[in-house]
Specification:
Blueprint lengths: L2 E5 L7 H14 L2 E8 L9 H27 L9 E7 L3 H12 L3 E5 L12 H9 L4 E4 L10 E5 L5 H15 L2 E8 L8 H12 L3 E7 L6 H12 L3 E6 L4 H7 L15 E5 L1
Parallel strand pairs: 1-2, 1-4, 2-3, 4-5, 6-7, 6-9, 7-8, 9-10
Antiparallel strand pairs: 5-10
């Protein structure tokens, strides 16, 4: 890890994402990029110079507001936090601006709260769910009510189609924070799978990391979301990892904004999503 970007709309719901990103940057020794996107409407009667003056004044005001917002968060920590930079962007398109900032700063992960300041009742808000689907950079979604705790066990949920390659990315994230990895697969009916011991041995030989593997039989009465939800609860993971693919519906039904499902894990633990 070299850089982590966290997006905030300065709402109370986004505090958990900033706290998580801060802790992760401290654990990994990486720089934190804090991004805030805002938008100003220009009155049709205003000339260019008047709007330019208004924009400069407003930007200074927002910068001060962001600084005070962060001061309130960081004052709870003993050590002074200096390894970060601020990025203010004026744009009507939040997703595009976050991705642009992430590209410009060459960040390794994007961190965002599952809910912002909007009034949506969905478990994952529109901004975070769209970002998960569109971002080529891994996205860490943090529940707005999440209390920071050690990342002791990471659950990597896989469809087994490319797990030997995907597990390396999970290991890259887990190693700096010293978290254990458990690989979870929800087995479909009549699906032929290699023995758990064989998979664990193969992963150990190829990565040098001990990964525990768990198969859970698909319950035809439940949705895939519900089966994953129940399995993650039993594993007692502190973070869940998904790999999503636009053309494959295996995990997308839980992560796509048009098909979002009310998983309780979304309200309790962080979710790290990679693009296949």
């Amino acid at each position: 890890m070299e850089k982590i970007l966290v997006a905030t709309d300065l709402s109370a719901n986004s505090v958990s994402a900033v706290r998580f990103a801060y802790k992760l940057s401290q654990l990994t020794g990486t720089k934190l990029v804090i991004v805030h996107i805002y938008h100003l409407l220009r009155p049709t009667s205003w000339r260019n110079h008047r709007f330019e003056n208004h924009r400069n004044i407003r930007k200074q005001f927002i910068a001060q507001k962001l600084t005070k917002f962060l001061d309130r968060i960081f004052k709870d920590y003993d050590d002074e936090f200096t390894n970060f930079e601020l990025d203010l962007k004026m744009s009507p398109n939040v997703i595009t601006s976050i991705l642009s900032s992430a590209s410009n700063h060459k960040v390794n992960y994007i961190c965002i709260s599952t809910l912002g300041s909007g009034k949506s009742k969905k478990i994952i808000g529109a901004t975070s769910s769209k970002l998960i689907v569109k971002s080529p950079i891994p996205v860490i979604s943090i529940p707005s009510t999440y209390n920071i705790k050690p990342l002791t066990q990471i659950c990597y949920a896989t469809d087994m189609s490319n797990y030997q390659k995907e597990i390396r990315k999970v290991i890259d994230f887990a190693t700096p924070v010293e978290a254990e990895i458990k690989m979870l697969h929800i087995a479909l009916q009549q699906e032929t799978l290699p023995k758990v011991s064989a998979v664990e041995t193969k992963l150990l030989k190829r990565t040098g990391i001990k990964v525990k593997v768990k198969y859970v039989q698909r319950n035809p009465v439940n949705t895939l979301s519900e089966d994953v939800n129940h399995a993650v609860k039993k594993i007692k993971s502190t973070l869940v990892v998904f790999f999503i693919h636009r053309s494959k519906p295996y995990w997308n039904s839980m992560l796509h904004p048009s098909k979002i499902q009310p998983l309780s894990i979304y309200t309790k633990i962080p979710i790290l999503s990679f693009k296949k």
